[in-house]
Amino acid sequence: MEEEKRKNGAGNLIVLFPFMAQGHLNPFLDLARHLASRTPSLTITIVSTPSNILTLRPRFLSFPTINFVDLPPFQNPKNAENTDALPSLFAISAFYQSSESLKPSFHRLISQLTQSNGGAPPICIISDMFLGFTVDVAHSFGSLHVPLYTSGPYAMSIYNSIWTHLPHRLTCADVLTLPDLPPNITIHGTQLSDNMIKAAASSNYSKDSPTFAARQAEYCRKSDGSLWNTVEVLEKWSLENWAKSSGKPVWAIGPLLPISSKEFERGGKTPGISPVKCAEWLNLHPPKSVVYVSFGSQNSIPLDQMMELAKGLEESEKGFIWVLRNPTGFDVGDEFRSEWLPEGFEERMREKVKGLLVRNWAPQMEILSHGSTGAFLSHCGWNSVLESLSRGVPMIGWPLGSEQFYNSKLLEEELGVCVEMARGVDAKIRAGDVAETVRLVLESEKGEEIRRRAEELEEEMKRAVVEVDGLKGSSVRALDDFVETLMMWGQ
Ligand code: UDP
């Protein structure tokens, strides 16, 4: 009956439900913009909790077909509405788990939207990959369900496979071959995040009580296809493999990027330095000579590693911009203490114009777009990866958790645009390793090679999102195809 209503129904309604975390919200917002500009006949409704909506709405005032609706905030240990407000990765993980309690209110909300849409349910619910429960809600209304993966298929194939085939009884020294992947893709024990190791080692692990991540993989298997914030040229094989193993269409529509740091400012992230001041500092440095250091919006490194990183950057004698977050074990809200860095470090770096230390948040897109930036030392979060490659900046990898290990692997082994310097929060890097890697990437012949490759990918990524003389780039084609599928379903 719902299906009939949908078919006879009024508006072409699409619902977008992003996860409430910085790195997940932005790709959704960019997708909403693309869909709204490309297909004005779609009504796009973005669902989130009230405080998120408050910051999101002002960004879309010029898009009349994009609406926002509130879900009631949900019970979680810190009663937060966004991971930004949370003090530690532990709290973030608890927030993810408890987000599943949103299911009944999401169901009610779709029912209300359907009523106010003349009885026609949404054509499609596009949810975050971590809001897998939405698949059952979508199907109960006769709507399509398509997750938008805010990570790439190479990493997600490995990540999902590890979670799905638990327990592995791995120790850090073991090498793992996964049943769903070719034998050449092996995973080392050091490429498992802490919670994976715990789950893998746990003797009472049971298939009947799957972990949050395994549950999401299971849910998304029931979806009607998948959207990916990636570009075909980066992961062609993995996309094809995902399509083959899922038996459903895949659409690689990336890179979905923030337009500028203003995007984050509106979302409440005030940079520790303005883009203009940052550019003034970068202007003092030769082209491609500065390394940008940032571990994303959630991660940080232990205190002893912070010390070694500082000493190593100084030893490299290269210019750097470093986004300082409190070391692991300290609340993100605590004030940064000068004793966390070598004595006199900040003053020395300032006087020599060698290092710019930025507290908490930097205008990343602007830094990566500046001609003086020569490398990005990163935790390899997927947004950071796409932002760096879209600006032709090679990477120095220090993956810290979840699928970041496989992003780093992809970048180094498959794409040749990265040197992995360290792995995991338990890495024991020494200052000398840091200095050596930074010089390798900024100065050596190998560094030249990976830069060339990064610049080639930048060009290819630009081509993916444009249409020239009737020739559509791969991401334009994919988005067209996706919209066509929606329209056919909505008829
Ligand atoms: N970001 C930023 N300034 C910072 C730190 C992060 O603008 O100082 C942005 C970055 O540009 C990216 C996002 O925050 O868009 C981080 O996403 P990513 O997937 O790289 O990592 P996550 O934070 O999800 O681990």
Automatic annotation (TrEMBL):
Entry-linked PROSITE patterns: UDPGT
One GO MF term: UDP-glucosyltransferase activity
Keyword Cell membrane: no
Coiled coil: 440-474
Family matches, as SUPFAM superfamilies: UDP-Glycosyltransferase/glycogen phosphorylase
Stretches assigned to the Glycosyltransferase N-terminal domain: 14-258
Keywords: Coiled coil, Glycosyltransferase, Transferase
UniProt keyword Amino-acid biosynthesis present: no
EC number: 2.4.1.-
Parts of the chain that traverse the membrane: none
EC primary class: transferase
Family assignment from sequence similarity: Belongs to the UDP-glycosyltransferase family.
Name of the featured protein: Glycosyltransferase
